């Protein structure tokens, strides 16, 4: 059952060949055994999962099943789950049990899906390797066969590793600057970051609110569509949620790609891009030509400013968002505070890890009087130019394609002492968040036995088109079906 997709599992359940309780037991057994090597889960919710599976079987017997009823999956540990620890990978929230569900959590619950637990992540979603988690690093299942410990990418590395290792068929994730797409690429799974505002941020612990977006991870594009069907939609509890109808994202998967206009941003096939990765990506694009698409080069003239703008704006917003963690109301509090100030300062000094502190310091500095105009305001102006680059490109083409990352999964420890090298992992992904447009990463080949991701970028609200393009590619390739040893 572990190799089956969400769509296939739904059919098994529908046919009555297996019950959700049996399926959930199988998945939990496998998960507990395999995750010792991977550390892709922070919390496994065994009892709750079995109770939910039981309820799902009853729901199905009563003729009230949805495509998700009784299907196991996992949540990134950034989505609040009522009554279940939600840590965001931090010591600060290690003891936090939310008294409410995120909208995304609630939606999966209503659909009858069975959550097996919460996946590991970089602390507060800041990182590209899932090494900064308070609960230890996650290991990429690829590479283990050769005895190598490679990073799964981040910050949603736990979700990506778990899906790649077939511990769950699907997992939720979030993407502020690449945290769905980069780990999807490094673990050989399929992930989608939707348009900003498409998926509610309510109950999703905030990092950089103007960039954060919840999204999907699974092995197939079809399963990403099934996830988005549940996740997308207007939510009055999120002031930046957009009130637009939600299509059935599975309905257009089979449309032919004939005539699809693909643009290749010149700036995304340059710089430190690994030559072997480029070759795999170009050969994937040739596959699209065989499917009837046309390809031309385009330019995103401000691409080289994206990392600089992102690493001002994201920390600035983080510094404001993370001021709520002060020991007063919930989360970690230092022992025996002398007075209020002592409580604030020691709580934050002890509760946050090094990367989170670095972001808070950088962000506070960029927002401070005297530096606001030079850094924050300037970055916001650059952001507008980057957005315009995409608007102009989508006048000429339907989608853009590029590598998701400049190179395949790196070794654990290789970049963890060098923040700037780590930030450059995001060179092809952050501009998409600055513009607010959707993008996917789709498995597109291997270099030295490690997966390579093809990034497909679309105009606002073009999720259906992206999923269609990814699905058609997956009908003629099998990169997404490869299994790590
Ligand atoms: N790697 C980027 C960062 O560290 C993006 C993280 C994310 O998308 N959550 O900020």
Description:
This protein has helices spanning 6-15, 20-38, 46-61, 103-111, 157-164, 181-187, 221-231, 275-290, 306-321, 340-351, 354-367, 372-396, 419-423, 430-435, 463-476; strands at residues 41-44, 72-76, 114-119, 170-175, 190-193, 213-218, 261-265, 294-298, 399-403, 439-447, 450-458. The chain has a domain at 6-259 and 440-481: Amidase signature (AS) enzymes. The protein is globular and about 65 Å long. The protein starts with 5 loop residues before the first helix and ends in a 9-residue tail after the last helix. α2 packs antiparallel against α3 and α5 packs parallel to α6. The protein has an eight-stranded mixed beta sheet with strand order 4-6-5-10-11-9-7-8. α4 links the parallel β2 and β3. The protein has 485 residues and is an alpha/beta fold. The structure holds glutamine. Glutamine is lined by residues 125-128, 155, 175-179, 207, 314, 426.
Q: Would you tell me the overall average pLDDT?
A: 97
Order of helices and strands: HHEHEHEHEHEEHEHEHHHHEHHEEH
Gross morphology? globular
Number of helical segments with 4 or more residues: 15
Going across the biggest sheet, name each strand in turn: 4-6-5-10-11-9-7-8
Secondary structural class? alpha/beta
Q: What is the CA-CA span between the terminal residues?
A: 17 Å
Active site: 76 (charge relay system), 155 (charge relay system), 179 (acyl-ester intermediate)
Protein name: Glutamyl-tRNA(Gln) amidotransferase subunit A
GO molecular function: ATP binding; glutaminyl-tRNA synthase (glutamine-hydrolyzing) activity; transferase activity
Pfam families: Amidase
